[in-house]
Amino acid sequence: MSIAIAKNHMAEMNMLGMLAVLDKTLAEATRDKISYTEFADILLQAEADYRQERKTVNRIKAAKFTVRPAFEDFDFTAERSITKTEIKEIYTLGWLNDARPLLLIGETGVGKTFIAQAVGLHACASGKSVLYMSITALQENLAIARSSGSYLRYRAKLAKFDLIIFDEMGMRKFTATEAQDLCEIIEERSIDKSVAFTSQLPVAHWNEVISDTVIFDAIRDRLEHSALTVNITGPTYRGVKARKLASKKKVA
User: Considering the domain 71-239 in this protein, what is its CATH number?
Assistant: First the structure.
């Protein structure tokens, strides 16, 4: 079989990882006189790596992140209360593998959303399916699903993700129906999946937006006893950035 025909077969069978490295691998095989087994191993590994990368790209796309931050970019010079040990505990994903919730609590601008989306990206790269949305988007989507007759289908869609990240919990008050939905989502994810929240409000104060005391107590019980909770205090990111820019201008 000619090289051209082999390339056509790879393209037709969607073996794009192999196709990308074929010429290089053939040249190296000729130069280094590698065995047929080694040659096959190189091509198969290239294909496996390519497919894994594509899966990660697709998971990230499906997650609907608004930004794509990395833990390596987190600014520890901002004098926030969160420590490198806490970041490491979040990063290892032990809480996700144990189906524990993650709670990131703190004022606006301390890095909650940055960390939430960074851990979501890391989870995608680790083979987990993730969905990111604001809590108000959840409320709106549930209302739309109910009115359109697709409520059960939407709930089934949510149930498929290994991790759902709800940003800015507490931005809007919950109706009794919305609160019940949230309670059920948290409960069904406690078995083998996980949920993460960012919020300015500690869980004990979520009754400020969930007026139904029975549902509030149920949500609080499900989260407080099992969640990895990280409370973040310190200056806002925007304030730190502004001071750094001002300092650079003075030096210039």
Answer: 3.40.50.300
Locate 120 and state its tokens: 């979501």
Q: Burial-class residue 35 by CB neighbours within 10 Å (0-12, 13-18, 19+).
A: exposed
- Looking at residue 36, its pLDDT comes to 81
What's the confidence (pLDDT) of residue 182? Answer: 97
Q: How far apart are the first and last CA of the chain?
A: 65
Backbone angles phi, psi at 178, to 5 degrees: -65, -40
Judge if pTM exceeds 0.85: no
Q: 58 or 16: whose pLDDT is higher?
A: 58
Query: Where in the chain do CATH 3.40.50.300 domains reside?
Result: 71-239
The model's pLDDT over 227-243, given as tens digits with 9 standing for 90+, comes to 999 999 988 766 555 45
Number of helices (H), then strands (E), in the chain: 11, 5
* DSSP annotation of 170: T
